[in-house]
Write a structure and sequence with these properties.
This protein is an alpha/beta fold. The chain has twelve helices and ten strands.
């Protein structure tokens, strides 16, 4: 469990109790990435639990390297990654994963759900995006097993992870999970999606999520420029390429500029439209490419 400025003790306690009930050999390793947070006083309690350990990095490693270092410290042959701001939806979370320790599968993705209760109006964009774009059934996710792969709840063979690690060279922005899944695909590792979700507890405000989405678009462009992913792998990159191909980029950005303020008001408002959100991100990508050309 990689973490930063978050109380992970309740999550660790739940996972430990489930592992104990299953009667398996296990370890739970948590690593805070130099947040120097007061919450680490709670996280220190993890060290008092059998088979559990909490580390604090002296310097910030970034999301990719922090995860890779966790694996270096891990003992066993199967690795279960969980994000800190998650919690198992069901009490049989661990046993369901144990049932899917399939030697024919290289990685297993459990999925994600969001709380049913509508959040504050200032958090609606992240909540609606999560429900409609991330909280998908295993059947839907298996139709595109790599692109549907989210790294906040997955099981993977340690031998596979030694081949496909998180890329430590990319900027610490977003989309390290996108690159990870693309590398799994390139290496022909088999991925299975199952219905074994965690609840995503942490919600950014709409303003924060919009800023992070812009950062994510920057990183997507970086991955494409460095030829780390294919433009056909991500829909927004494919759309951008088609607009450039038919010399329509300037047309899109011109007309978008006329309504940009209204679109931004919508996505930050009480009824955010994800189609408009997609247009906002596409325009941002095209603006980055225009800047690069200049």
């Amino acid at each position: 469990i990689p973490t930063f400025n978050y109380n992970v003790f309740p999550l660790v306690l739940e996972i430990k109790q489930q592992c104990d009930l299953c009667g398996i050999s296990y370890e739970i390793i948590v690593q805070d990435d130099a947040s120097n947070s007061i919450l680490n006083e709670e996280n220190q309690k993890i060290n008092q639990l059998a088979n559990c350990v909490f580390y604090q990095n002296d310097t910030n490693l970034g999301r990719s390297k922090n995860r890779n270092v966790l694996v270096e410290k891990a003992t066993y042959d199967w690795l279960l990654f969980l994000d800190a701001d998650t919690f198992p939806k069901n009490p049989d979370f661990i046993s369901v994963y144990l049932e899917n320790l399939n030697q024919k599968m290289d990685a297993v993705n459990g999925g994600i759900v969001y709380q049913n209760q509508k959040p504050k109006n200032t958090e609606l964009l992240r909540w609606i995006y999560g429900i409609k774009r991330e909280a998908l059934s295993s059947e839907v996710r298996n139709e595109n097993e790599y692109l549907s792969f989210l790294t906040l709840n997955f099981l993977i063979k340690k031998s596979v992870f030694k081949v496909v690690k998180f890329n430590e060279e990319i900027p610490n922005l977003r989309h390290e999970d996108t690159l990870f899944s693309f590398d799994l695909k390139k290496a022909n590792f088999k991925v299975l999606h199952i219905n074994n979700p965690i609840i995503h507890l942490g919600l950014d405000t709409s303003e924060e999520f919009l800023i992070k989405s812009e950062e994510a678009v920057k990183n997507l462009k970086y991955l494409l420029d460095k030829q780390l992913i294919s433009k056909d792998y991500i829909r927004i990159l494919k759309l951008s390429d088609q607009l450039k191909k038919y010399h329509l980029s300037w047309v899109f950005t011109y007309f978008f500029g006329l309504v940009k303020s209204q679109i931004k008001k919508n996505v930050l408002g009480e009824n955010p439209n994800l189609f408009l959100f997609d247009l906002y991100r596409l325009n941002y990508l095209l603006s980055l490419e225009t800047t690069s050309i200049k």
